[in-house]
Amino acid sequence: HSLKKMKKAQQDVLLDPTGWKTEKSQKFFDLREIDSESRSTIYYKESEWLDEKGLKQRFVVTFSLKYQDYLRNIRERQINRALAKTKTPSAYSKKNQNDPKRLIKAQHTTPEGEIAEQLSLDLDLEQIQKEEKFDGFYCISTNLDASPEDLIKVNSRRWEIEETFRIMKSEMKARPVYLRRDNRIQAHFLTCFLSLLIYRILEKKLGQKYSVHEIIGTLKSMTVINEQNKGYRPCYTRTKLTDTLHEVFGFRTDWEIMSQKEIKKIIKKSKTK
Length: 273
Prior knowledge:
Layout: H1 8-14, E1 21-22, E2 43-50, E3 56-63, H2 65-85, E4 104-109, E5 115-123, H3 125-132, E6 137-142, H4 148-170, H5 182-205, H6 212-221, E7 224-226, E8 232-234, H7 240-249, H8 260-272
Antiparallel strand pairs: 1-2, 2-3, 3-6, 4-5, 7-8
């Protein structure tokens, strides 16, 4: 059920940061007080209303920091695409619900109120803020007698499957496929699935505290440069995530200078893993 289409009074009740529970605890939580340690925890609350026909409707709303990161990562990509479209007004056309152009505000007049010679396009910051309000929330409307915990499990699997397909497409570059032979197509997708498997294992080893965007972005940035005869120097900024990666895998690449011998040891250790 779309929270965005509900009446404001219903939204206010369901999106209120207080009064949330979890599957493992019946005490109430305030969403403003949860931190990254609870990233994989799913919070929920229930409510009932009578619809226009007088029939009782049951609503179960869930919130997850992980789902929030997932939605914000999608919007960040859409904002970047929308920003690129603002530079080509001639290509601007009607927008639909999921089109990045919905995040663009078209200005047909000048600041003085006159008709502009050229269409002016800018990011619609108000629309972006409206959408951010719902990040991390998902509403289920049902007449089933199933427990909230059972409904939550089904729903979490649904969006995790969606996330997996998005990771395969965007991060693993599974599509488009520029191959024709069957064996090469199979090898391409096998590589993508193995990459996804490695990522999921890594995500679990990191305690599910970081998003795919954070993990893969950090890994891509962790480069070193050869300072000729002096050794290797890291070219990235040390963060809490890089520290955790080093702790999990038992070696470090953030020393001021690493000898060629030390780098060879790290490479050898990564292969034996």
